[in-house]
Design a protein that fits this description.
- By secondary structure, this protein is α+β, with helices and mostly antiparallel strands.
- The protein has one domain: 3-Layer(aba) Sandwich (Aminopeptidase).
- It has helices at residues 12-27, 38-48, 51-59, 112-127, 142-150, 172-185, 208-217, and strands spanning 3-6, 64-69, 75-83, 96-103, 133-138, 154-159, 191-196.
- A seven-stranded mixed β-sheet has the order 1-2-3-4-5-7-6, sandwiched between helices.
- The longest helix has 16 residues, at 12-27.
Length: 218
C-alpha cells in the first residue's frame, strides 16, 4: 500500500533523486524530448535537484512537501506548494501555488497524482482561505492541463520557463535545433499559467457540486 505523507528531513536524499528522475522522464528522451543544451540543463538540475537544495525546501516553513512512499520504502511521487511566485499581474505571494507534482512513470495508473493534488489543494485552501490557487504547467503537456481544468483551474496566461540561460541568450545552433523540434512536435517552449478562482474553493461559497468534486479528488 502506498502512503501519502508530509516529507521529513530524512527524505531529502531520496526526494532529490526522485525529482531528478521524474524531471528527466518528463522532459528529456523518455518524455517530450526537449533538446536542452547540456550546459544549461546541468546548471538547471544543479540549482533545482541537489541534496542541499531539496533539504532546504523541506526545512522552509513557507513551503509544504508531500511524498508518496511505496511499501518497500521507495519514494515514487511528490508534490510541493508555497507562496505564489508566478509572473502574472494578478498573482501575489499571499496566494498559494502548486510548485511541483510528479509521479514516477512506473507508478502511473495508481492514482497517486490525484491524491497528491488533493493534499496540496486542501492545504492551500486551509492556509489561504478565500484566495486563488495558482500553478504553471508546460504548454505541451496536454494531459496535465486536462487534469487541472477538471479540478476547476482556468488558463490565464503564459510565460517562458528558464532552464539555464536559454531564455536570455539562445545560441544560433540551439535555436535551429529547437525550431526543428517544434516543427515536428507542434509544441511550444512556454508554460501556461493556471488559476483556480477563490470562489470555487472558499469554504464560505463552496457549492454542493464542488464539495462532491473535492471529496472525489482526494
Amino acid at each position: 500500500m502506498v502512503q501519502l505523507r508530509p516529507a521529513r528531513p530524512e527524505d531529502a536524499a531520496p526526494l532529490a533523486a526522485l525529482k531528478l528522475v521524474t524531471f528527466r522522464e518528463t522532459f528529456l528522451e523518455e518524455g517530450f524530448a526537449i533538446p536542452y543544451p547540456p550546459a544549461d540543463l546541468a546548471r538547471f538540475e544543479a540549482a533545482s535537484y541537489t541534496l542541499p537544495v531539496v533539504a532546504a525546501e523541506i526545512a522552509d516553513p513557507a513551503k509544504r512537501n508531500w511524498v508518496a512512499e511505496a511499501e518497500d520504502g521507495r519514494l515514487i511521487g511528490y508534490a510541493q506548494v508555497g507562496p505564489c511566485k508566478l509572473p502574472h499581474p494578478d498573482a501575489t505571494e499571499r496566494h498559494g501555488e502548486l510548485y511541483q507534482l510528479y509521479v514516477l512513470r512506473a507508478a502511473w495508473g495508481m492514482r497517486l497524482g490525484g491524491g497528491l493534488l488533493g493534499l496540496a489543494m486542501r492545504h492551500l485552501a486551509a492556509t489561504r482561505p478565500g484566495l486563488p490557487l495558482w500553478l504553471g504547467v508546460w504548454s505541451g503537456n496536454a494531459r496535465a492541463q486536462a487534469v487541472y481544468r477538471q479540478k476547476g483551474f482556468e488558463k490565464v496566461g503564459e510565460y517562458r520557463f528558464k532552464v539555464g540561460d536559454i531564455t536570455r541568450a539562445l545560441r544560433a545552433d540551439y535555436l535551429a535545433e529547437v525550431r526543428n523540434w517544434m516543427a515536428h512536435s507542434g509544441l511550444r517552449q512556454q508554460v501556461c499559467l493556471y488559476e483556480r478562482p477563490a470562489h470555487r474553493w472558499s469554504p464560505i461559497m463552496r457549492s454542493a457540486a464542488s464539495s462532491t468534486r473535492t471529496s472525489r479528488c482526494c
